[in-house]
Each structure stands twice: as C-alpha cells, then as structure tokens.
Amino acid sequence: MHDLLGRRLGNYRLVRLLGYGGFADVYLGEHIHLGTQAALKVLRARLESEEQERFLQEGRTAAHLSHPSIVRVLDFGIEETVPFLVMEYAPHGTLRQRIPQGTRLSIQEILPLVRQLSSALHYAHEQGVIHRDVKPANMLLNQRDEVLLSDFGIAAIAQSVHGLNGKEVTGTAAYMSPEQIQGRALPASDQYSLGVVLYEWLTGDWPFHGSFTEICSQHLTATPPPLHEKRPDIPVAVATVVERALAKDPEQRFVSMQAFSDAFAEAYGNEIAAPDEDEVTLRRSLLTDPTLYADEGSRGASSLPPTMDAPVGGASVGIPSLPVVLSGKKTGVSRRKVIIGAGVALTGAAAIGGATWFLLAHATSHDASEQFTAPPSPTPASTRVPSVGTTVFTYRQHSESVLSLAWSPNGQYIVSGSADTTARVWKTTKDETLYTYRGHAGLLNSIFSVSWERNGKAIASGSSDQTVQIWEAATGNRLTLYQGHAARVLSVAWSPQTTSIASAGADKTVQVWDAFTGKIGAVYHGHTDSVYAVVWSPDGTLIASGSADKTVHVWEAETQQVVAHYQHTDAVYAVAWSPDGTLLASAGADQRIQIWDARTATQQTTLFISTELTAAITALSWSADGKRIASACTDATVSLWDVEAGKLVYTYKEHAAPVYTVAWVPDGPYLASGSADRTVRIWRGR
Ligand code: AMP
C-alpha cells in the first residue's frame, strides 16, 4: 500500500510513510486546507460491508475517548473501500522504538509511564472501552515525550481482518491475557498486558517465549519466572504488584487500573521513603527501652492513652501513610458466609504474640448475630482461686468476630483483631478499649493476625487488605507499612530474638523481613496453597509454617533450608511450638492435634477431637510450663489437653459461636479466647 504516498484520503494528503503494523500502514498526512499534520492509519485489507460497519463502530468509540494520554482520533473514513483513521500525530515515535527489547528501566523511569498509561486505561474502562492490545508499540510519544496510548479497540478489528503477519501476532501474544486468548477480553485484560509491559521494562525480558501457540499456552498455565530471579534489586513490594497484575484469574488482579497504578506507586514510594539509619536506630531504641510494659507499677498511666482512637499513619516517623478510610462502619459481612479463623499462640519465649488466621470457603452453621446471648461474667471470689474453666473477664467491644489476639508480655493488656476491621488494645480487667487501631480500615477488611513484640513496644497486625502494619503499642502510631504480600495476610509473628517478622498468607509465601526497615530478608516458596500459620522456634532459628496444602514445613529462618516436613490429611490452620523448642503441635481441618518432633518430624502423640464432622481446629497455644495445649475449635469450644498423658482435661463451652483464637497468658494459669460471638473471654486454664 506504499503506493498511496502523495494520494489524498479525506481532507489529507499522504506525505510520508511513518510506519506500518500488522494490518495497517501509517502515513503522515497534511490537511489540504489547514496545512495541519495528522497521522493516517490506512488499513491494508478491503473490508466487506459488515466488517466496514464494525470498523466504523470502533472508530466512533475511539473518537469519543478524550484523555491527555490517549491519541486523539480526529476523523475516520472509507475511500473506495479503503478504511482509514485520522489521528493526532505523535512525532517522537513509540516506546517500542524508544525502549528497545532487552533494555532495563529503573523504577523511577517507569513510574510516570505507569501513571499515564493506567490513567488512560482507567478512563477508557470507565467509558466501557477495553483497549485489547496494550503493548509498547501502541504507546506513542508526543512532542513533550508524554505517552499517548493508541489503537483503542483496533485489535478487535484486526481480528476480523485477514492477512495478519505472524510476527505481529506473536508480538501481541506476548502481552495477551489468558482470558483474552480464550476470546473473552475484560478491562482486567488490559491490566495484565500492562503487567507484561512492566515485567519487560523491569527485567528486559518477556515472561514467556516461544511460538505463538507456545506463548499462548504459557499465558494460560505457566507462572511467569519471578521478577526477583531476573532482577534481584527490585523491591519485593514492586515485584509483587506486577506479579499480581499477571494473575491468571482476572479476579485476583487489582480492581481497577487506578488501583494498580496506586499500588505500584505506593510500593515504590515505600521503598524510597525507607527510613534512614538514624530513624531505624531510633525505632529500635524505642523497642529496647525496658521500662515500658516491664511491670504495671513502672509504666504508669501515661504510656497508654485514655479511651481514644489512636491516630493512624506514620507521619511522625516519616513513612507515607496509606489513604486510610477512617470509618467505624460495620462491615456488613455475614458471619454465616465467610469467616472462620485460626489463631496460633507462640510458646515459651515467644508466647507473647502470634495469632494466625484463615478464611474457610465453606460456611459454619453458626451465626453469632442470631444465636449469641452473652453468658454472665462470673466474678471470682477474692478469697479462693477460681477453678479451671471459670471465666474471669469478658471483653465485648468488637462489633464483629474476634479473629486474633495477643497478650502484652506482662500479661496486663490484650490486642484483639477483628472482622470489624479494627484491632483494639485493652486492659485485661476492664471492658473498655484503650484505643482502636484503624490502619486496616476499609470495607470488609479483617485483621487475621496480631503479634506483640517481645518487649511490649510494638504490635504487628496482618489483614485481608494484604498489608502487615507495625505500630507503637503505646500510641497506635504506625511505624511500618509492609506490602510484600500479594493476597490476604493470614499470619504474623515477631521473632522471639530479633526485630524480624515472619508473615504468611494466601499468596502461599512466608516472608521474613525487618519490622523497622521493611527490608525483606527471605521469601519461602515451599507451600503450594495458602499459609495459615507461621511460628518461630523459641530460639528464633527455625520457622514452622502450616498450610492449606496439608503440610507443616520446618525451615531455617536464615537459609530457608527445610529441616522437617509433616503431612496432615487436610488443611493445617494452627501450629504451636513447645516451650523447650523440641516439639511441634499442629492441627486444622482434619480434627486432630498432631504432636511431633520439630526436627525429625517423628510422630509423638495424636490428640483426637471428637466433635461434629464439619468442625476444624482453628488455633493452638502451648502453656509456658509445656504441660498443656489449648485448642480452639469452630464448634464453639476450647479444649485443654494434658500433653504427657495425651488426654483431654477440660472443654470450655462459654463461647456461643466458633472460636478462632486462643492464647495462654505469657506466664500464668489464664487463657484468652476470641470468637465469632464477638467476645474475648479470659478464663482459668489450670
Ligand atoms: P501501528 O499499526 O499502530 O502499529 O503503527 C505502525 C507505526 O506507525 C507505529 O509503530 C508508529 O511508528 C507509527 N504511528 C502510528 N500511529 C502514529 C501516530 N499517531 N503518530 C505518529 N506515528 C504513528
């Protein structure tokens, strides 16, 4: 079609060939009256009338898009069966030309491109238009080097036009989402394609290679090689954002292009705003001050504020805060539908923290809102020791299920995380909230896990919002926002020795990172399904992780070398370490507690729960003296077991709905258990 040079199409004379693609040639055109320049895309194929109508329709759609980062369509016509599109002329070429294959860009260079492209696509999606062919060759540059996305919807036309050349199709296939390959383009398909583009810009390589068919089949089934493997210096949070955009299931991607772009910027922003050395030292010193929480007398009333909602956001420590919705609204979540949790309390030195959570797809028959009537809270007679099972205190301030809890190291306070989107810090003798942490606020967010730092200074919380947040226990001020997970965070645990955090979640990973720098130390990829429980060995050298893949893995925190591997017959929701570090207890959907040697995985004891068929064990806590294990169950009970005798010694039945979390006070005879009945109950356990 190069013979069109010099010819007139519509009001334009074709003065120069600018380029050509799979199905069209692009000419620089000059308006015959106005002398203005435009780019004319001239389709090579002659269209049948039905196809012409479709092309026209697409042209109309594109022409109605008006956005600073979308090439403006100025006109459209068909001259003697030759269809053509008149567009704004972009004199600086395409990003394909500007960024040759194999080039790696810095995140700083990528960020403005992501912003512009996402904004353009977000706008188009709002107009009901899917691009369908997002790739660097369709990203043009104007005089000011700003990006202009071109060819909206043209891919759909291309598909109806014959004679596509193989190279072009392969070039497009490299960026094509699985669902689009299957003939079903969605707005999220554009996000996937942009994800591939970012993958390419970050690593200098496409995620998949091969023939057209090979690439397509990889898009459908193969996991892209982790970004980190190709470029280890990319912050994990950034890699995670890109990998999420590349999820096979469109539902797993970000809800919108804007959300994608925000997450990318946030991940990067976090990285550049990482605290400097001085600040890290300052934060660490906060943690090592022995006076706070050392004992009731020395801390005084001032270290925890009165009953006031704590501020959210880390302005005071220089971490950019999330756009947090400060909403106290109820979530509207139906407990019948969704939430069952599992808590894991660490033991011995680590006993202060750790509660792990899960969501079960299948429903529980309990519905707290219908069934729950609070039992009277018995007050212990001051002169005698309450007997085992006596409830000494009930906390009722949560408006939804309590999913996680952790004691302060001195046993005076509890932090409880809930499906009401909040975590609350309260004194264990008063049914009042000292303050409410709302850093995870947002519709339907649940706090699946909380863990109290060993000196009492900071609390870690993990949520369905996919973040882990570290906040100052005394004030609720956020210190760190960790966004390394690509799905909800189900379990969080402080190292008993250092400032490391282990966090795990539905993204199947366990990540070990520093609580104050947010710097990642390791990512454990050994599980093949959601990881519900993560616990440190009391000496801080090993990590045990329990997963829906029915296994518990014990591995070295430093090297991720697997030390032991224990098999259950169903999903594992809870893991607890014996205080002396030799044994592990694990439990979950297979309704039995297995006790086994932590290093050899040799079976020691099996404790059978005799309960209704659908019940699952959601949480385990090993008492500091090593003699008792408490197990929480979805049948609304907590069982106490004598470890040595392998016998059930008591069943606590005061909760009115599934129990999701249980933890022994760090050194004492009491237990706290949290439930879908919205209460936390403190009761005598031995
Ligand atoms: P396409 O068929 O969209 O892939 O376009 C083929 C080539 O034409 C591109 O690689 C660009 O070099 C060039 N081109 C397309 N549209 C424009 C435009 N609006 N302004 C300048 N050059 C363009």
Task: State the main characteristics.
686 residues, alpha+beta, six-stranded antiparallel beta sheet, five-stranded antiparallel beta sheet
Low-confidence stretches: 159-171, 289-383
Based on DSSP secondary structure assignment, what is the total number of beta strands?
A: 37
Class of the domain at 2-268, according to the CATH hierarchy?
Mainly Alpha
Lateral strand order in the biggest sheet: 1-2-3-4-6-5
Please state the CA-atom Rg, rounded to the nearest Å: 29 Å
What can you tell me about this protein's structure?
20% of the residues lie in helices and 30% in strands. By secondary structure, the chain is of the alpha+beta class. It has a domain at 2-268: Transferase(Phosphotransferase) domain 1 (Transferase(Phosphotransferase), domain 1, Orthogonal Bundle). A hairpin with a 5-residue loop joins strand 21 and strand 22 (520-524). The chain starts with 7 loop residues before the first strand and ends with a strand. Adenosine monophosphate binds next to strand 2 and strand 3.
